[in-house]
Write a structure and sequence with these properties.
The structure holds two protein chains of two kinds.
Chain A lengths: L11 H25 L7 H5 L8 H19 L4 E3 L9 E6 L8 H10 L11 E6 L23 E6 L8 H5 L5 E3 L5 E3 L9 H5 L6 E2 L14 E3 L11 E2 L5 H4 L6 H5 L5 E5 L6 H8 L2 E2 L11 E4 L3
Parallel strand pairs in A: 1-8, 2-12
Antiparallel strand pairs in A: 2-10, 3-4, 5-6, 7-9, 11-12
Chain B lengths: L1 H14 L3 H27 L14 H18 L1 H6 L5 H26 L22 H28 L6 H27 L12 H27 L6 H32 L5 H7 L9 H19 L1 H4 L2 H19 L1 H8 L14 H30 L12 H10 L6 H6 L1
Helix pairs in contact in B: 1-15, 2-15, 3-5, 3-7, 3-8, 3-13, 3-14, 5-6, 5-15, 6-7, 7-8, 8-9, 8-13, 9-11, 10-14, 11-13, 13-14
Classes of the chains: A alpha+beta, B mainly alpha.
């Protein structure tokens, strides 16, 4: 909410004018900066690119064309980078049936494939916690690196955790540059070209949902997914933060997130919270749901429930 | 024009020195070079060269940053007792305090830059040019107060020294309000930095109201500890006159600050251990270790023991007025706060992480290297400014003396290696 007020009251022309002088001014500074940044393969356009939220439609188009050709060249595949806006009347919500989840981690890898997470170094947006049935939801006794011959392991249950898409997100509040925000359809997104990599959001997130590109991300050409969204699964650079976006490229096209689709036991449910006929609303109405760390007032749109 | 002469003289004054001075400078330059090459590696490979990972996403860099904010803040706070007790060389206390503050803030900013994943995008945080998330993000507040503090101190020091250089009386109505402004700003940089951590409900280790007062209390210990030692050196090598009583008074005030710091630490330890909730785990990691994870325990206890020892050394009049025990106390306090406000503040907040997973962090060589470079650059700046200040304040260097001190003479001296030219002979001869 706090992030919505920017640029209010500034007429469009004035904004453009100040932008051009700003650009010239920055160009000289940029040239010096470029020389210094020996390891940073960054083009001038990239360096001068503005916050995605402040771009005009034509500027967005220009950037997207540039990115598409850049990615296509790099991976030898035809890329599309969408900037599809939120669909009016949608607020996405998610529900996960703890009683069904078997801890197979298929969601983890489906997510990696769909969302172009780096394979080396490895980035996972979903973390599955193996917990003792006797202890209940107890993070300090849980284990993400479980590796039994067969899941589910006797006496244990599984709690997959990714971005909880909070209604009151801490991460966007603490970001010093407004590189991350909540869209109207409830998805918290990151502009990878604007993130400065300070990792304040990672310190603020109570769910460990934000991940940093500590090294140069790498994806084999044959595995890369060329159907991307600017605010979602397009290839990232090192030194920026990324996170689950409910597969924004799919959700806004009317598809389920890939973790929902891949789940072999149907533990994952997804839908529009504003649609009274949706499956997610049916679950909220007929099941007893819980949210994680409710004491922090983050108000997640990611619910857990016991279906059976 | 005169200002250029001032800068030129400053450089000349700085270069004046004997064998040991040049050894010191070469040592610092070597470390800076080592740090810079380390940083170039970090830029090309990414922050993966550090030991930080998603679980422990802040580490040694941010720890050093936090500690140095304390040093920067407290060196100015010495101005308050200087006023109250009417210490004679108040101008000197102000100038050297501010020089320490300037060097510390510069190191702070460098540590922040070293920690950034995309340092070239720093301009995104600027108002107008970028999209500064003000007032929501405490980090933007921190950037603002730190930069204001830096420029304010830089201005005051330059203004005072420049006026001494051109042999003009400085304008009190300009300087005094600025000095007075720097005091609340000093408290401000520390409070805002504490709020940065304090305001995160996700991190129980930080999310305690006692954190901010503890920051201020420990800062009142670490900043003056540096000044105690610096003033003794100044007194020995220059005509700087400062009474013994001033040292004792500073030490006494530090004892009170240390008591408050230990009391607050104790209160927190009581609350955590007695209530024994799941949030105790972070303190456990720090003070007793959890299972085989006991990496911080030795540092945590050394910090507390050194703090207590320094408290008693500074409390008991006999040890406070003895310069040997006084200096031991100052070093103890410095080390104690360095651990407490450095790794002791940052690492336990992330161990275990928010999902209860343990990732054991110890700084990598790359981090130590970059940190060594930053500290060396800070020391170099500090040496430079202190030398210039000494020459202008105590050795009466001014605009008329400029021509008598040539670069040729300076370097001739070094090559001849006749130890350090006596300051008296250079200025009054």
């Amino acid at each position: 909410m706090k992030n919505k007020i920017e640029n209010a009251g500034i007429p469009m022309e004035e904004k453009d004018k100040s932008t051009t002088t700003r650009k010239n001014l920055l160009k000289t500074a940029a040239a010096a900066g470029m020389m210094l940044a020996t390891g940073c393969k960054m083009s001038m356009e990239e360096f001068l690119q503005k916050n995605f939220k402040t771009l005009t439609d034509s500027e967005k188009k220009e950037i997207i064309t540039r990115l598409e050709s850049e990615y296509s060249k790099k991976y030898g595949k035809k890329f599309t980078v969408s900037a599809q806006e939120p669909i009016e009347g949608t607020l996405f919500g998610y529900a996960l049936d703890i009683s069904r989840c078997i801890g197979c981690r298929r969601c983890v890898y489906a997510c990696v494939n769909e969302n172009n997470q780096s394979r080396k170094p490895q980035v996972h947006w979903i973390q599955v916690l193996q917990m003792d049935k006797e202890k209940g939801i107890d993070y300090h006794h849980s284990d993400t690196h479980y590796n039994p011959p067969k899941v589910p392991l006797e006496g244990h249950f599984y709690l997959p955790v990714a971005c909880q898409q909070c209604r009151n997100p801490q991460c966007t509040t603490v970001c010093p540059v407004k590189a991350t925000w909540q869209e109207i359809d409830g998805i918290v997104v990151v502009d990878y070209n604007w993130c400065i990599g300070c990792r304040n959001c990672m310190a603020a997130c109570p769910y460990g949902a934000r991940h940093f590109n500590w090294g140069q991300p790498s994806i084999p050409n044959e595995e890369v997914n060329p159907e991307t969204h600017y605010l979602g699964n397009r290839p990232r650079m090192k030194g920026v933060v990324e996170k689950c976006t409910f597969c924004i490229q799919r959700a806004r096209a009317g598809l389920y997130p890939s973790c929902v689709e891949v789940c072999p036991v149907g533990a994952r449910k997804f839908g529009n919270l504003l649609d009274p006929e949706s499956e997610i609303r049916y679950i909220l109405k007929t099941k007893r749901v819980l949210i994680l760390k409710e004491d922090l007032n983050t108000q997640p749109k990611f619910y857990y429930f016991f279906g059976v | 024009m005169k200002f250029i002469k001032f800068i030129l003289l400053s450089i000349k004054i700085f270069l004046r020195g004997g064998k040991y001075f040049y050894l010191w400078i070469s040592f610092l330059l070597l470390l800076i070079l080592w740090g810079v090459t380390g940083y170039i590696n970090q830029i090309s490979d990414g922050l993966i060269v550090t030991s930080m990972r998603d679980s422990v996403s802040w580490g040694f860099y941010i720890g050093n940053f936090t500690f140095l904010v304390g040093v920067a803040a407290a060196s100015i706070m010495l101005v308050i007792p200087a006023y109250i007790y009417e210490w004679k060389p108040i101008k000197e206390v102000v100038i050297f305090g501010e020089i320490l503050a300037i060097s510390s803030v510069i190191m702070c900013l460098l540590f922040i830059i070293a920690d950034m994943g995309q340092p070239l995008r720093f301009w995104h945080m600027l108002p107008i040019l970028g999209t500064m998330n003000f007032p929501s993000s405490i980090l933007t507040w921190d950037a603002m107060v730190l930069n204001s503090y830096l420029f304010l101190n830089l201005f005051i020091v330059t203004y005072l020294l420049y006026h001494a250089f051109i042999k003009k009386e400085y304008n009190k109505s300009i300087v005094m309000p600025l000095i007075l402004l720097s005091i609340p700003l000093a408290v401000g940089i520390h409070t805002v930095t504490a709020f940065l951590y304090n305001g995160m409900p996700a991190r129980h280790y930080w999310n305690s109201a006692i954190l901010t007062p503890k920051f201020i209390a420990s800062a009142f210990c670490s900043g003056p500890a540096v000044m105690l030692i610096l003033f003794q050196i100044l007194r020995k090598i220059t005509s700087f006159q400062i009474k013994d009583e001033v040292f004792w008074k500073i030490a006494e005030l530090m004892a009170y600050a240390m008591f408050l710091n230990l009391f607050l630490t104790g209160s927190e330890i009581f609350k955590e251990y007695y209530s024994d909730t799941e949030h105790l785990i972070y303190h456990k990691y720090l003070y007793t270790g959890i299972g085989k994870h006991n990496d911080l325990v030795i540092y945590a206890w050394s910090s507390i023991i050194m703090g207590i020892a320094a408290f008693f050394l500074f409390l008991i009049p006999k040890t406070r007025t003895n310069f040997l025990t006084l200096n031991i106390g100052a070093v103890f306090i410095y080390l104690s706060v360095y651990v407490e406000k450095g790794i002791g503040l940052i690492i336990p907040a992330f161990t275990p992480d928010v999902l209860g997973q343990f990732y054991i962090y110890t700084p990598s060589w790359a981090e130590l290297r970059v940190a060594a470079g930053i500290f060396s650059l800070g020391f170099l700046l500090f040496t430079f400014m202190v030398k210039v200040a000494i020459a202008i304040i105590f050795e009466d260097f001014n605009i008329d003396k400029l021509s008598s001190l040539t670069f040729r003479d300076i370097f001739k001296n070094i090559i001849d290696d006749k130890s350090a030219p006596k300051p008296e002979s250079a200025s009054r001869g």
